[in-house]
Every structure is written in C-alpha cells, then in structure tokens.
Amino acid sequence: MSTGSAAPQVAPARGASIDDLLARVTDGHRPTVDEAEMLLHAPLDRLLPAAAALRDVGLGRAGRPGVVTYSRKVFVPLTTLCRDRCHYCIFVDTPGQLSLLRKPTYMSPEQVLTVVRQGQSLGCKEALLTLGDRPEDRWPEARAWLDAHGFASTVEYVAHIARLITAETGMLVHANPGVMLPDELAMLRPVAPSMGMMLETTSRRLFEEPGQVHYGSPDKDPALRLKVIDDAGAAGIPFTTGILVGIGETVRDRAESLVALRESDDRHGHVQEVIVQNFRAKPRTAMQGAPDADTAEYLATVAVARLVLGPDMRIQVPPNLSDPRELGLLLDAGIDDWGGVSPLTADHVNPERPWPHIDDLAAATADHGFELRERLTAHPEYLADPDRWIDPALHGPVRELRDATGLAADVLPLGAGRRATGGEDAGGGFPAAGTSSVRDISSSPDARGAGPGGHSAGDPGVGRLAERAAADPLALDDADWVRLLRTTGDDLDALTAAADDARRYTVGEPITLVQNRNLTSTGFRPGGRTAEGEFDLDDAAAIAADAAGLGATEICVQGRLSDDVDPTAYLDIVRAVKLGAGGIHVHAYRPQDVVDLAERGGLGLDGALAAMRDAGVDTVPGTGVKVLSERVRERIAPGDLDIDRWVETITAAHRAGFRSTSVLFYGHVETAAERIAHLRRLREIQGRTRGFAEFVPIPLPGGDVPLVHGRAARDEHRAMVAVSRLLLSGSIPHVQIPWTRVGRETAAVLLRSGGDDLGGTLYDGRVLPDTGIEHGNELPVPDAERLARSLMRPFRLRTTDYRVSADVRTTGSAGSPA
C-alpha cells in the first residue's frame, strides 16, 4: 500500500556499488527496473539484512512491530475447469476427467457449505474461492451447467456462493476467479472484502512464444492481467497479487514485474500484499522435468520485492512451498505474511505440498523472533478506512471478526456458536445464518441430487443425514452414526459419495504411499538368529541399509520383546537401524511396547519416551488396540493393554512430540455403537494432542462378522471407511486403506469411499525378509501408481509424516495436463 507520492526515479551513478544502492534504498530511494535487476544479482548477505530492516520499519509504522500475519482459511475449488493451458498446472481438469473422477462441473452450494462449515468450526474466517478462468468460453459443459442453474457467467456464480457463505457462516470470502472485467469486479465487491489474481510475470515471451508456459492461455496476457489489477484499484478493492519465480522468466522479467506492481499501487494504493511464489515442478505436466526455483534466486527475489515495494507493502510467501528449515531464511529476506493457511483443506493448487500446522508455523516464526498473528482477508490498513475500501454490505460481517487493531478477533465466525446481531451489524443486507434468501439450486440438474455424490438415496433421510455428517460431524448423535454405519444399497452409495466428497474437498485428490519395510522386534535375539523371523543388531543394521537401498524412507519396528531380553534392546534396535541407514525414518513401538520399556527398564513412561527420542525414534505406531472397549478387549485380546493405559500412553507420546497412527480393528464381537464410541474417543484425544496423522480401519483377520446380516464384506468395508472419513473429518486428516487385509481390488473401491492413502510398500527386501510382519505382501510403487491411474487420481510418494517424499519428482500422476 502506498504512503504518499512516488520518489523520483534516479539511476545509480555509473560504477555505483551494491552497498551504495542499498544505502540509498534504506534512505527511501525506490529502485528502477535497472536497479532492481542489479539487486537481484547481489549477494544474499547484503540483500537480506537490508530487506529485513526495511520490513521492520514498516511493521513499526503499522503499529505492530515484530508481528508476522497469516489468515486461517478454507480453500474452496469451486470448479477445476479452465479455458487456459498453463504448462505447470495440475489444478485444472477437462470435462472428461471430471466424469471419470465423479466430480461435479461446479461445486454445488451444499458442497461448498459442507466444507466451509467444517472450517468455521475450526476457527477459519476466510473462504478462498479459487477456480479456473472463464471455463464457459472453452467448455460447452460449463456453459450448459451455468444455463441450467440460471447464471450468466462463472463470476456470477462466484458472487452467489460468496454471498451464501457470509450469510450462512459469517466467514469472509477472498475471491480469486482470474481475469475479471470492471463490471465483474463491481459485482463481487459487495460480497468479497478482498480479491486476488497473480500477475505471475510481465514476460511477453512466455505468453507469445510456442512451447513457453503461458502460450495458448488467453488469460495470461501480461497486459490484460495488469489492466485487471489497475481496474481493481479504480474500483477500490483491496487486492492480492504477486509473481511466480522459476517458470522460465529472466531476472530482468522479475525486476520489471515488481516495478509494474509498484506502479499500479502508486496509482491506487490498493495492492494489499504481493506474493512471491516459488515454482515447484509437478508430475505429468509439460514442466515436470524443469528444476524447482533455485533457493538462492528465490530468496533474492523475496528480498528485492521488499526493497522495490517498500516498508509498507505486505510481502507474502506460501509456507508450504518451502522446506520447514527454510522458513527462517524467508523471514530474514523481509517477508511479513504467510498468507492463507488451512487447518482443514489441502492446497488444491499444490496438493503435494501440505500446509504446515498453524502451531508449528507459529513456533517457527517465534524461533526467529516474531509473533504470529491471525488477520482477515483484507489487511488492517484497509479495514481502518472501510468507507473507502469495504462495501457497505460487508461492514457488519467485517466488524464481527476484526479486533481494535484490524487483525482477526479471537472469536468464531457467525454461526459457530454465535448469534447474528440483526440489522446492519448482521451484514448490511446479508440475512442471518439459516435464513439465506439466495436461490436454492440443489434440485437443479447436476446439483448432485439427494445423494451428495450424485446418487439418489433409497431413503432421502439417509442422504440428508450423510450431508449433515459431512457438514458438521459433531451434530449427529450416536444413533445417527449407527444408522449410517448400517446402510446398504442406494443408501450406502449416497453415504460413500458424501464421504468421497468430504475427502476430495479437504485432503484433495492425491493417493499417497510411503516406501517402507517392517521389522518385528519380537524376533530380536541378542545372541543371533536361530530360527525364522529372528535377527540380531547386525541384522537390524543390514536390514535398514538394504531397505534404504530399495528406496524405503521408513522402517516400522514394533512388537513386545521376549521377557528374557533386556528391555534396553528396544533402544539398541533403533540405534542399529539408524547406524545402517542414518537418514531413514524410524516409526517404532506401540503403546504396549513403550509400557514394557517403561516398566521393565525402570524408566517410567516419560523416561521411556525420552529415551526413545534420544535413540532415534521419529514417530510411533498407534496400534496394539482393537476397539477402545474393555468388554471387547477382555473377550478377544486380553493380552492387550488396558484401554485406559493405552490412552494414557498414546497421549503421553503425543505430548512428548511424537505423532502416531490410529486404528480400529472391526468385524468381530464389537457392536456398531462400540465402533462409533471408538472413533469419538480418537477424535477427543486428537482434540487435546493433535498427534494422530492418520486413521486405519482394519478388518480383524478371521472375523468377517458383518454388522448387517447378509451384507457383503466389501460393503461392510465401504460403510466403515465412509463413516470413519465423515466422523473424523476436521480432526484426523488421512484415512488409510489396509490393502494387505482387503486386497488391491477392494482397496480401489475404498479409495472411492473416503480413503486417500495406501499405507506402505512393505518391502520384503533382500536381507531376512521373514523378520517383518506381513512379509510376502508387497505393493511396489509402479503397482500403486497403476491403481491410482485406474481411479484417475494423482499419485504421490509421501514421508511418514505426510510430507512430500524426496522421490516425488520421479513418480507419475493420474490424468494429464489440460
């Protein structure tokens, strides 16, 4: 945001040094394009301190020194159709791909509200509406959908959805529909307090030259995009824009792009933040073989953005597109905003890059001397002058969510336990929650019908119940969940469709897999192997080295040691694994094993967990329990830990910094109500510790006892996966399909019932393959890729903690670039 008139553009004297130029910029000089290009070539040890100092001046002038901001958001991909053909994009689908994926042409209002309300319950105040540019101009299917639902354009539908979101939830919309005409900007202004569109680059070469990233994409004309940014300023709209680094542009292009954005802001004062985003190559795109943006060049561009745009501009970088260890460098480079971060939904544009947990982002920010504070979609400088920058229809909703400084207030959005105040305070034209006057299109063609996934439920009540479960899992009572768990036929189809939508619009489309190997610690023998399944410490090191050589990033170690083995062997095994493969992730020891180490080792629970950490354990399995019911444990697994002790141990592990899996073994003596109680207990633990990374519903071997007499085993699994996804949505993000128990064919079906993960490859390896539980079952990466491709879903190798694997660039992706 500009603060006064532009300073004269004075070129540096011939031969002027970088230090001279930086001193002048520090004193208020605004770099020309030539000077910005010069700075982009400057050493980082000169650039970063100057940029950071300028940022600190701006934060001081804003009245919030040392504060870095973010927005807690829900990402809503309203449609993935687009008329452009960008060479790096995997967000976009074709109509044929939508059909194969069972995705709607446009999200229906019900689907949007389902996701937004879950975000609302997690404290989100922003709904980011992202979509492709003018799909109706390329795809007859998009035009037909809009005509059938009474909308003249995609932008008009965006306005309808934005108004609905604020009316029903009190959340504020940030609209990002691409290129807009002045009348479309005016249409959106009363329903979205901020809007955005990346400039990306001013390079005409990338737009006009065949083979370049923007060739064939009419909306990527730099002149057109600069005009939209200018038109937004003339309309008085707080606007977010930015540049992409590493898409083939030159250093000169970067300098010109930054200066062009400054000049637009000079004219109108409306550019509330500039995003400097680093390119990340994606499989199955035209740029899949291109290198990611160079880290040093990226840091230089971030710093020069600060130097060009000045102390009062908010400079934003996406935290999920950088390694967590690089966040401090980005702060050093002068950023003051992390942008939107979601506790619920994936980054649907970069689905392979999960958002950091907000607590982790706050900790990383604090480690570098800054406080993380939540803001709204429009930055405080604009909220301080609402008559100029915010449409009167939004004054009330904005006032509900802002504090005295203009940052986000410590309140939940309207509807999440709060009541509308009525009149202007309720939104100046927005109806109170639950009384929306916007037209209902749920009965129109392609609105998904009574069943959320496009199926007509045999019992409309079950379809509505599934929709309620997707929108607000905590609103259903146990009897409702039991009813869903026992569905059959068309009702089950409606349930699984609702669960699959919940999966799609939260964690996204990718199917993930970790490359791993099991090592069963029960077979450890300090004196050496004497029988099948046994191993010693040298074997453990050799097994780890072999697994790493096969590409494994994880060794999973679990199983109680024999009573005649010293319990310190738990730690010795981990050290041996790390000795054999130093960089491998050790996922080790069930609560039952941890308790054995704590008791026989005389360490106590906290001491055992600390010793595990010191030995090299990274995460822990949440297994060793069937159903969280003493009745069930006593009948089928009396040797398992008491339920309360299991809960105590897994909770202590989470509080000690370990993340874990969670499981439910079903299909034996448990009732439907006990399954539901188990899921609720896991959700309650997660609410306190945030330690569960995934949930795995596992059929108990030899059980095969259906909840509904005569219901096929596959339908039993479908119902269990779907209910798990819905009940745990917004709490435990990933639902893993146990392919070793259900088979690959059924696993594919369950990935369409709410599942998103296939667990591990379970490599047998070339060294003592019999030492791993479930040996003889392998899921090689190519096989998993083929399974994902059959579902038209992207495939991703992941790490144990669901970050992108270092090998992700070598894997394929279902579908093809549009």
Describe the model.
The chain is of the alpha/beta class and 818 residues long. It is 40% helix and 12% strand. The protein has 31 helices and 18 strands. The strands form four sheets. Strands 1, 2, 3, 4, 5, 6, 7, 8 and 9 form a nine-stranded parallel beta sheet that branches. Helix 23 (591-600) crosses helix 24 (604-615). It is globular, with a radius of gyration of 27 Å. It starts with 17 loop residues before the first helix and ends in a 21-residue tail after the last strand. 56% of the residues are buried.
Largest sheet: 9 strands, parallel
What gyration radius follows from the Cα positions, in whole Å?
A: 27 Å
Tell me which oligomeric state these chains represent. single chain
- Give the overall silhouette: globular
Beta-strand fraction estimate:
5-15%
The proportion of residues forming helix, as a percent range, comes to 25-40%
C-alpha end-to-end distance: 36 Å
Strand runs, count: 18
Helix and strand composition category: alpha/beta
Extract low-pLDDT stretches: 2-15, 416-438, 442-457, 808-818
The DSSP helix count reads 31
Average of per-residue pLDDT values: 90
